Amino acid sequence: MSKNDGNGKTASNANLKTLKKKKAMWAYIFLLPQIIVFFVFSAYPIVMSYVYSFYEWTGIGPLDDFVGLGNYQQLLTSPRFWNSAVVSIYYILGTTILGVGGALILAIILNDQKLNGKGFYRAIYFLPVVTTTAIVGIIMGNIFGINGFVNQILLHANLIDKPIPWLTDPFLAVIILIVIGSWKGLGINMVYWLAGLQSIPNELYESAQLDGAGFWSTLRHVTLPLLKPMAAVIILLSLVSGINAFDLVKTLTNGGPNFATETMDLFIYNFAFSSQLGGGQVRMGYASAAGVLLGLFTFVISMIFGAASFGKQIIKLRGSKRRKGGVNV
Amino acid sequence: MKKISKFMFSLLAVLLLLSACNSDEEDTDSGSEDEDGVTLTFWNRYPELRGGFEDLIEQFEAEHPGINIEKQEVPEPETQLRTALSEGDLPDMWTNIVELAELIEVDAVKNLDEIFTDEVKGQFQEGTWFENGTTADSSVYGFPLASARSKAMIMYYNKDVFDMLGLTEGDIPQSWEEFKELGQTIVDDSGGAVYPIVWNNPGWANEQLVSMMGTAITPEVPWQENYKEGVPQVLTEGKVESAKFLKELLDEGLMAPQSVEIGLGEAEATFSVGQSAFLWSGDWVGRQLFVETEFENWGVAPLPTKDGNPYYYHAGSEATSIRVNNETEHWEEVKTFLEYSLEHLHEVVYVNTGAGLPAKEDVGGEPPFEQYNDILELENELAIPVPKPAEFNSEVVEFNKAYRNKLEVGGIGDVVVGYITGNISDLEAEIEQIDQEMKDAFFETLDEFSEVSQDDYIYPNWEPFAPYTIEKYDELR
C-alpha cells in the first residue's frame, strides 16, 4: 500500500512538473513576439545609441571616427545643452505641479455623487488627451500669437496697451508651454485620480460624516491619506511624461527665440536630423550622447522620486516581515 | 514537449518569413515594376517646384506610357532622406538634401557623367558645376535645376498698397533712412492699417538677410568667411548694423509685430492681403505669390541698404539639383526621364511657372507673370560668384565637415532673432562669441588636417562684387 502510494505520489509529482513546464512553455510562446519586438525596437536602439555616442557620425556610413568621450565632454561644456536641461526641468516640474494638482481638484469635484452631467464634463476634460499634440501646438500658436485671440481680447478690454509676446519672451513662452502641457495631460491625470477616489470605501466617508467631519476635514484626514499610494504613481508618470515635450515645443516655439525654449529632446532632434538648427552638420553621435544623458537624467529623476515616495513603504514592509520572521525584502 | 518545440520552431519560421516579406516590401520603395510598366519614385523638397514637377511628369508620362513617376513632397527633407538612407530605402530620385560628399562616401548617389557630356555641360550657366554641389572630382552627381546665380533676397512691393496711398515706383526706398521715412508715411496715411514691412523668424532667413544687407557695408565677408584674411568671420559691422536696423523697424512700429514669430508662408499671406507694403524674400516667392496666394499686383526692387550702396549674395550657395539613387533598379528609365528633363524641365518647371531662374542657358517658355523677367534681371545682378575653397582644394570638403562638427550653432541667425525679440541686449558680444568659437574650431581643425592650409581660404585676386571665375583659381595655383 505504502509502496503503491509512494509510486502514485511520485507519478503525480512528475505529472505536476510536466504540467507546470507545459504551462511555462506556453507562457514563453505567447511572450515571444513581444520579446522579439522589445529587443528589436527597444533594447537594440538603446544599446546602439550608447555605441554611437562614442563616435563622430552623421548617421550615414560606417562608424569609423571613434572619439571616445569627446561627445560627452563637448556636451557637458555646452551652454546650449545645459540651457535645454534647465528648460526641461522647468517644464517637468511645472507640468507635474500644475497638471497633477489641477487634475486632483477636478477629480474631487467630478467625483461628487450629487453633480449632474459628470460624464459630459469628464469627456470634455479628457478631450485634449486624445487630440494630436502637434495640432494643439499649432492652434495654441494662433491663440497666443502676437495677433492671437488672447492678445486681441486683452487689447479690446483695454487691459494692455500693446500685445504681449507670449511666445517670443523666453519666460512667458516657458510658462505657456507648461500651461498647455498641463492642460493636455489634465484629462489622463484626472482619470487616474478618479480611479483612486472611487477605490476609497464609502463606509469611511459615512463614518467621518457620523463623527461630524466636514468637507475639508474629510479631505484632509480620509481622502488624501488614502490617495497617497496613487499619488506616488501619478506624480512619477507625470514627471516621466514631462521629459517628452518634443511635439509641443517643436510646433509652438520650435525652441526659440535663440534656443531659449529648447528642451533636451528637441536639442537631440536638432543635432540628429536638422543641420540648420545644429552646428551646421548633422551629428548623430553627438545627439546620441545627449540621448544617453537624457536617459540617465530620467533614471535619476525616477530613482530620486521613487526613493522619496516609496522608500518609507519599503522600510515599513521590511520591518513587518522581520517581525513576522519572513524573508527580508 | 516535442510538439511544443515543433510549434515554437514553426512560429519562429513564420515570424522570420513575415519579417523577410516585410523588408522585401520596404526595399521596393526605390521604384517598382508591374503590368502598367515601371514606377519611379521621386521626392521633392522645394514647395515652389511642386506644380512645375507635376506638369513635367504629366507630359513625360504621356510621352512614355511604360514609365510612371510617383512624386512625393517631403516637408522634413533631411529627416526623411537620412531615415531612408539608413534603412536602404531611398527613392529613385530626389531633389538635393544631404551634402553630396556624405552621399558619395557611402556610395548612395549615382554618377551622371553618362548623361552630362562636356557638350551637355556647356549648355548650362557658368557656376553651375562646382565641387560638393553638382560635382565631385569633376564627375557630375546632380542634375542642375536652379541657376547658381539665384536665391539672392530682393524686395517685393505691393502695388495695391502703393495705389491706395498714392505712392509711385519713384518712392521705393534705397537706403535705410529712406525706408524708415516712407514707412512712417505708410503707417500715418493708412491709419496704422498697413505695416511698411512684414518679415519672418527662421534663423536661416535672418542670417541671409543681415549677411546680404551687410555686404553693402562689409563687402569682404559675403557669408561666413573673410576671403581676404582667410578666416571664418561672422562679426562684421555690416551684419551688426543690419540686425540693429531690423530691431529699430520692429521697435518703431514699422515692421508687422507678428514678423518675429511667423514663417515665410504667413509673411507672404500678410503681404498679399495688403497688410504690409513690402516683403523681403528670395526669387522663388514670385511664383508663390502668383499661385499660392493668387496675388498679382506686385513689383520687385533691390533691398534697401544703409547708405543705398549695392549689396550682393554669394552665388552657388546651394546646388539645387536632382540626385539619383545609386542602387536604383531602373536606371534605364531614370536615364530616359533625365534625358527628357534635359530638354524640357527648365522650361516647364522654372520658366512656365515662374518658380525661379533655371540653370540651363537659352531656355524657352512663357513666364506666367510679367514680373518674372524683373526678378531674373535682379538676381543676375545680385548673385555674384565668390571664391569657393573646395574648388581650389577638394580636401576642404572634409575639412569643413570636421570644422563644423566642433560648432554648437551653425551661424548667427538665431542670435539675430533673439536680439530682435529683445532677449539679447548685447548683440556684438553674442556674435563675437560665435565668431571666436568659429575661429578656434577653424584653427584647431587646421592642425588636424595636413592637406588643408589657411592659404586655401585666402584669395588676394578676389575683389568683392567682381565675379570670381575659374581662371582666377588658376592664377593662384
Structure summarized in a few sentences:
Chain A: InterPro entries: ABC_transporter_permease, MetI-like, MetI-like_sf. With 329 residues, chain A is mostly helical.
Structure description:
The complex is a heterodimer of chains A (329) and B (477). In chain A, helix 3 (79-110) crosses helix 11 (264-273). Chain A has 329 residues and is an all-alpha fold. The longest helix of chain A has 51 residues, at 2-52. The model of chain A has no long low-confidence stretch (mean pLDDT 88). Chain A has one domain (69-307): Orthogonal Bundle (MetI-like fold). Chain A is built from twelve helices and no strands. Chain A is 73% helix and 0% strand. With 477 residues, chain B is of the alpha/beta class. Helices cover 43% and strands 12% of the residues of chain B. Chain B has 18 helices and 16 strands. In chain B, the strands form five sheets. In chain B, strands 1, 2, 3, 4, 7 and 15 form a six-stranded mixed beta sheet that branches. Chain B has a four-stranded mixed beta sheet with strand order 9-12-8-13. In chain B, helix 8 packs across helix 9 (237-251), helix 8 (203-214) crosses helix 16 and helix 15 crosses helix 17. The longest helix of chain B has 26 residues, at 2-27. The radius of gyration of chain B is 25 Å and the shape is globular. Mean pLDDT of chain B is 90; it is low at 14-28. The A-B interface holds A 21-22, 25-26, 29, 32-33, 36, 56, 58-61, 74, 78-80, 141, 145-147, 163, 165, 167-170, 256-260, 273-283, 286 and B 1, 4, 7-8, 11-12, 15, 76, 78-79, 82, 85-86, 98, 102-103, 105-106, 108, 201, 203-204, 257-258, 260-262, 401, 404-411, 414-415, 417-418, 421-424.
